[in-house]
């Protein structure tokens, strides 16, 4: 038997009956049909799906992703082996990694981290389970990669805001505002991932190092601009960082809203910083003096 199908047609047929039964209709093995689906990024039911359907537990199939670059949208399925085969065009490793990350994000957003098993992610991404393990050695590594990516994006936004400030206090205020707004927009995913002990342990050193670097940077500026002694400057910076992080955590846990977090965090931190500078600082720049510090 020989049949020419579009990806859409194959996708729809794959969710009407078990893959082995569908493969038999075409005169090919279930494994051969699964490989065709994997190559075309066509999701198909995993093990146990049809038993759940028989038990009355209907499950919506995942959406059909875009076709891989360089792959035809039609496929010929034949029980007769072709004499020659066209070379396959494979997705690059970076594109495949990004696809896996995007699919994992969608699963977590819809069903939580417990649903994002490596098998489920591979199935929804339309690749073999071995394929996903070639890029991520474990679920923890995959989750840590996503959390690291989210944190890096948030840090990027904060760094852009830092460059707009004219003095340490203004830079702190701008970066904290940017942080809180990023947390509101994207922080829930990071927070969910960091509730997992294995992910938290994986990222612990990186997060501690990043927090320490941020505190030291603020402390150095306070010392250079306002003459605050290094121990006091770094201590103040560490407290400012902790205040911002705490506000962000309350925000992601929905224990406060963005407007309240902004109104409480920024004025409190700035007033405290001005008090520290007035008490321990030994010199002021013209700009700082103009602000009434």
UniProtKB/TrEMBL annotation:
<dbReference type="InterPro" id="IPR009057">
    <property type="entry name" value="Homeodomain-like_sf"/>
</dbReference>
<dbReference type="InterPro" id="IPR001647">
    <property type="entry name" value="HTH_TetR"/>
</dbReference>
<dbReference type="Pfam" id="PF00440">
    <property type="entry name" value="TetR_N"/>
</dbReference>
<keyword id="KW-0238">DNA-binding</keyword>
<dbReference type="GO" id="GO:0000976">
    <property type="term" value="F:transcription cis-regulatory region binding"/>
</dbReference>
<dbReference type="InterPro" id="IPR050109">
    <property type="entry name" value="HTH-type_TetR-like_transc_reg"/>
</dbReference>
<protein>
    <submittedName>
        <fullName>TetR/AcrR family transcriptional regulator</fullName>
    </submittedName>
</protein>
<feature type="domain" description="HTH tetR-type">
    <location>
        <begin position="94"/>
        <end position="154"/>
    </location>
</feature>
<dbReference type="GO" id="GO:0003700">
    <property type="term" value="F:DNA-binding transcription factor activity"/>
</dbReference>
<feature type="DNA-binding region" description="H-T-H motif">
    <location>
        <begin position="117"/>
        <end position="136"/>
    </location>
</feature>
């Amino acid at each position: 038997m020989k049949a020419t199908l579009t990806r859409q047609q194959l996708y729809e047929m794959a969710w009407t009956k078990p893959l082995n039964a569908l493969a038999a209709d075409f005169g090919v093995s279930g494994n051969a049909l699964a490989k065709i689906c994997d190559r075309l990024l066509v999701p198909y039911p995993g093990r146990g799906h049809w038993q759940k359907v028989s038990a009355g537990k209907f499950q919506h199939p995942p959406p059909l992703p875009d076709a891989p670059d360089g792959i035809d949208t039609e496929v010929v399925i034949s029980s007769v082996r072709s004499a020659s085969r066209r070379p396959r065009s494979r997705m690059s490793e970076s594109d495949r990694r990004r696809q896996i990350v995007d699919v994992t994000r969608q699963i977590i957003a819809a069903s939580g981290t417990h649903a994002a098993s490596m098998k489920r992610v591979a199935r929804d991404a339309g690749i073999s389970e071995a394929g996903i393990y070639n890029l991520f050695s474990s679920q923890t590594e995959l989750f840590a990669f996503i959390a690291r990516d989210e944190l890096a994006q948030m840090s990027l936004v904060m760094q852009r805001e830092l460059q707009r400030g004219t003095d340490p206090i203004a830079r702190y205020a701008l970066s904290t505002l940017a942080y809180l707004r990023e947390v509101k927009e994207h922080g829930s995913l990071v927070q969910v991932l960091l509730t997992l002990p294995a992910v938290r342990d994986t990222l612990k050193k990186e997060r501690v190092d990043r927090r320490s670097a941020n505190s030291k940077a603020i402390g150095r500026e306070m010392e250079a601009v306002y003459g605050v002694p290094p121990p006091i400057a770094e201590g103040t910076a560490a407290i400012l960082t902790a205040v911002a992080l705490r506000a962000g955590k309350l925000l992601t846990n929905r224990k406060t809203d963005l407007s309240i977090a902004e109104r409480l965090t920024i004025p409190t931190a700035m007033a405290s910083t001005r008090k520290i500078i007035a008490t321990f600082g030994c010199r002021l720049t013209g700009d700082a003096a103009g602000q009434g510090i």
